[in-house]
Design goal:
five-stranded mixed β-sheet, alpha/beta, 11 strands, 251 residues, 7 helices
């Protein structure tokens, strides 16, 4: 059984992977790459009482060397295999990117694209709704045509939370149009504004390849956003893990 780790900007997601699927998973919020004491943080990771050591530890991360070194020490202290980190060379994941500097693209985005291909989607618009929302256009042959980035739901709401006239407002309801209080106005406006942006931008990206292509959505805020999107949308909660798992195939 493999242990898969997706270390993002605000959460560490983990999954036990066996026989081509996630078997158990969880997530733990952290305070960011520079503010989190990684050795203590990792020691608090429960992993649902693992009975046996993993055959592999595969990790995609955007947190840097401090996290990597702590993870290596954590695994070594348990007598587990040394973690393997996803490479920033897209060709190793079957992806050819039009990015001017492909190594600067977030590795979780490459993992999501590899996951889409593992599902049989040669062409797709991939929408990952995390701390930031990323949209990527994948076309035949693993060709990454580029993408877009915008603030995620939490970032939008936190930025408004410090604005004059809004600061200190509690979380409101996100189903009020028109809203009759500031809390509901912020909750509904940010949700539906992000939905409208994703709808428009994903449609624009998809127009750059012939024919209709699927839209895949993943990430922590996907369940909140997907029901409001127009047209067909495919929810794939484990898309990044699917791509990451492919790193260890054949080993």
């Amino acid at each position: 059984m493999k242990l898969l780790l997706d270390a993002g900007n605000s959460r560490l997601k983990w999954a036990w992977w066996a026989q081509g699927a996630v078997r158990k998973q969880g997530a733990l919020a952290h305070d960011g790459a520079t503010r989190t004491p990684w050795p203590g943080f990792l020691s608090s990771l429960e992993l649902r009482k693992a009975r046996h050591p993993p055959t592999q530890i595969l990790c995609v991360e955007v947190l840097g060397n401090g996290f990597r070194e702590a993870l290596q020490a954590w695994a070594g202290g348990r007598g587990w295999p040394a973690p393997r980190f996803m490479s920033d060379d897209p060709a190793l994941h079957g992806i050819i990117s039009d990015y001017h500097h492909p190594s600067r693209l977030g590795l979780d985005r490459y993992a999501a694209m590899a996951g889409a291909r593992a599902l049989g989607h040669e062409s797709a618009v991939i929408i990952d709704c995390g701390t930031a929302v990323t949209l990527d256009l994948l076309s035949k042959g693993g060709h990454h045509r580029g993408g877009l980035i915008l603030p995620g739901l939490g970032l939008m709401r936190r930025s408004l939370g410090v604005a004059p006239g809004v600061s200190g407002v509690e979380q409101g309801r996100a189903d009020r149009i028109p809203a009759s209080c500031t809390a509901d106005a912020v909750a509904t406006g940010t949700l539906m504004g992000l939905v409208a942006a994703i709808d428009r931008l994903s449609s624009s990206l998809g127009s750059h390849v012939p024919g209709a292509i699927p839209r895949l959505i993943t990430g922590g805020d996907a369940p909140s956003l997907a029901p409001h999107l127009t047209g067909d949308i495919i929810m794939v909660p484990d898309l990044v893990f699917m791509g990451l798992a492919g790193m260890g195939e054949g080993d």
